[in-house]
Amino acid sequence: MRAESWRLVRFVWAAVSVIVLETILLGISVAPVVAFLQWQSTWVLTDAVRIGLLSLAVVPLYLLFAAILIVVSPLATRLLGWRTPDNVTMRLTDFEWPVLAWGRYLMTIHVVRVFAGPAFRSTPFWSLYLRLNGARIGRLVWVNSLAVMDHNLLELDDDVVIGSDVHLSGHTVEHGMLCTARVHLQRGTVVGVGTVLGIGVTTGVGTQVGALSVVPKFATLDGGASYAGAPVRRVS
Questions:
Q1: Which of 135, 133, 130, 134 is nearest to 145 (CA)?
Q2: What is the value of pTM for the model shown?
């Protein structure tokens, strides 16, 4: 079989496998909700009481669904070995298995952040999800952003704070090439709202990055210093 045909086969298999997995994971997560609704339908109640109980149950049932999803999804990707490959440069259109594993890994992250992220971001539960999904997370880490990807390439030490809408990932795509590298934010690093951190970035202890800044890829920021701008420059 020609190389083009094998690429198509790999792509189709990857697409089908991630659809099947997400169908199973969402089904498992929503099963307790469906079971409760089925059980509640057997109660002898007036329509007004039934509507009132169902209305009150919406938020708890949603939180239950989201909590289950943030546990079963990382366990599934860990079992299947779907991760972002570390320190590689690969052509996307070749659809090699490491690239497809990365794509499926990111798809599972996207599904979780859509369904569970609004409820749990900037809470210990979100840090727990990142840790389960491969990130190295210290104590008292607060991540208030849903634009955090490639969890297995992230290392956030104790007391790190990630502001709202911060873009943090271990990959970039340049001229059709997937490039990956680890990101390490050392203890006490604070990243302001809307900041973009490139791949391979390392911060020192107590580094402060201002809002709406851009940290270039492979940059090393000094500890105890403040940075701002696009690209960032030391301001103190």
A1: 130
A2: 0.92
